[in-house]
């Protein structure tokens, strides 16, 4: 099998590459612009492996994507490349509009050219999206594949637009597109601007742990390896034109997450305990969605996927990974992002 993974040097994309490369016959080409969010160290396990190739390119470059996709002729394109941080989208939405909308358009056009060439009848395009496209839930209910789109942030609005393009390329051109809408991921190799790695690294360095608003916002957490398995199942067995909601049945408030991180670090670094003394409530994110939760019945029943990772154990393993892999994150903290507040100003 030949796979092309856009955004493969990012958090979920690199986890997917590790999952795909477990199959001895898998060939993986990553297309990544290597933005601030990419880390070549996430893919160093495949250095020198003839089954793996990293192409530095911008998915917005339509002629380059056409040439690359037609030349590589993958069986599956997993499209993950995106600008992904909500706070950065509040400060500057343009890169989000470019990559998430124009870039998705270019990937769909390139995929269409390959599919219409006719020599890859089993071709599939897996468009990787988020539950944030559905907006905010109250205390009850969960998102599923029938939930209406209602995005709140520039990030989620561009992801919603990209989902609509992907669905339209199926309905209009018959491109075998499958869409996944997944909840919040955690695990190794996540860029330390996102909640869990930011809290872990700030706590390790004795910096404050900023909790937005009153910390009551709820997210449904899924280990990145479970997400990678879901994407593989969708590519293998999903129905073209269908969407799949993916989640871990693991709802936690942000405050619960930060408290758990502190407790796990107290056990590992007792000399600095209690790490909870570093918690500081800060001004909320503008347009902060209150709650996300996923009803993943469809992918569980139709595709036999189920999350394997228990959250408490998965979080402990994640913290241990950051403790053991300072060489992965230290250059990011020192030279790319030191943990300062983003996305505060209401436009
Ligand atoms: N992180 C989550 O919790 C989550 C949940 C559901 C869905 N998703 C979606 O999964 C995908 C991957 O998310 P992530 O958390 O791994 O993101 P990430 O920010 O860690 O990685 C994104 C990758 O895309 C690359 N990229 C950005 N712009 C590009 C461009 N123009 N051309 C080529 N490459 C480009 C970056 O260099 C980076 O390697 C995204 O589409 C995101 O919307 C993320």
UniProtKB/TrEMBL annotation:
Name of protein: dTDP-glucose 4,6-dehydratase
Needed cofactors: NAD(+)
Enzymatic reactions: dTDP-alpha-D-glucose = dTDP-4-dehydro-6-deoxy-alpha-D-glucose + H2O
Entry's EC annotation: 4.2.1.46
Keywords tagged on the record: Lyase, NAD
EC top class, as a word: lyase
Sequence ranges assigned to domain NAD(P)-binding in this UniProt record: 4-317
UniProt xrefs under InterPro entries: dTDP_Gluc_deHydtase, NAD(P)-bd_dom, NAD(P)-bd_dom_sf
Pfam families hit by this protein: GDP_Man_Dehyd
Protein species of origin: Hyphomonas beringensis
Domain of life: Bacteria
GO MF annotations in UniProt: dTDP-glucose 4,6-dehydratase activity
